[in-house]
Design a protein that fits this description.
The chain is α+β, with helices and mostly antiparallel strands. Helix content is about 65%, strand content about 15%. The chain has 6 helices and 6 strands. The strands form 2 sheets. Strands 2-3-1-6 form a 4-stranded antiparallel beta sheet, sandwiched between helices. It has a two-stranded antiparallel sheet with strand order 4-5. Helix 3 runs antiparallel to helix 4. The longest helix is centred in the first third of the chain and has 67 residues. The C terminus is likely disordered.
Length: about 230
């Protein structure tokens, strides 16, 4: 074999080896790229799932916080949440030198509804009372179920006492409208006691106590008592 032929064969062999190495490296690069894409896709899926889980947890915590402040039957504030709202309203009223009013509402003739038609009917009446009270107030006001058939209604930033009286008259008519049960209607009335900051009391406990006492003084006549 001549030197030229041997050189040509060696050159061809070198080219083949180079091509093999090149393709092997290319295959390795393709493999690494595919592995990278796969790992990145898996990571993105895990991150998406984690974000969804965090969002669901956040919503659950928010709902739990709302539920902890709401009476489950009437969807009004519960007693503890209302006390906090009154405390906050008092702090604002003291800074702004404004007035707030607290209404203590007790339903008359509610027990006969429970006794005659059952607790389910009584619950439905309480739900309708809660709906009427919430519809009657502004967003800045608050309604709570104080217990049993008793409700509190907080009115903030009062301009004058005449506004309270007019609102109470409207509220009395609203609560005296018939309540729809399955096949019947029932009628109730309400005794309402009122306390005003700073005229009657300056603390949460004081406002509730004064309105409660005013409500009991009004009960024999089943009409409003202005403290």
């Amino acid at each position: 074999m001549s030197d030229e032929s041997e050189h040509a064969e060696n050159s061809n062999l070198a080219d083949m080896i180079f091509q093999l190495n090149y393709h092997a490296q290319s295959a390795e690069l393709v493999h690494l790229r595919c592995e990278f894409i796969l790992q990145r896709t898996l990571w993105e899926k895990k991150q998406h799932k984690l974000r969804l889980t965090n969002q669901q947890l956040s919503l659950a915590l928010q709902q739990a916080n709302v539920n902890s402040q709401v009476d489950p039957l009437t969807q009004t504030l519960n007693r503890c949440a209302m006390q906090e709202r009154i405390g906050y309203a008092l702090s604002v009223a003291k800074r702004q030198k404004s007035q707030i009013a607290l209404l203590f509402i007790d339903l008359n003739n509610f027990k006969p509804v429970n006794d005659q038609y059952g607790h389910e009917a009584g619950d439905r009446v309480l739900q309708q009372v809660g709906e009427r009270l919430k519809a009657a107030v502004r967003d800045s006001d608050a309604v709570s179920r104080h217990g049993g058939d008793e409700f509190l209604l907080l009115l903030t930033d009062l301009k004058n006492y005449a506004d309270i009286s007019a609102f109470i008259d409207k509220l009395q008519c609203l609560l005296a409208e018939p309540y729809q049960l399955t096949n019947i209607h029932v009628w109730l009335s309400a005794s309402i006691g009122i306390s005003v900051f700073p005229r009657d009391a300056t603390t949460t406990t004081g406002l509730i106590g004064f309105a409660d006492a005013a409500m009991y003084r009004a009960k024999p006549q089943s009409k409003i008592r202005h403290g």
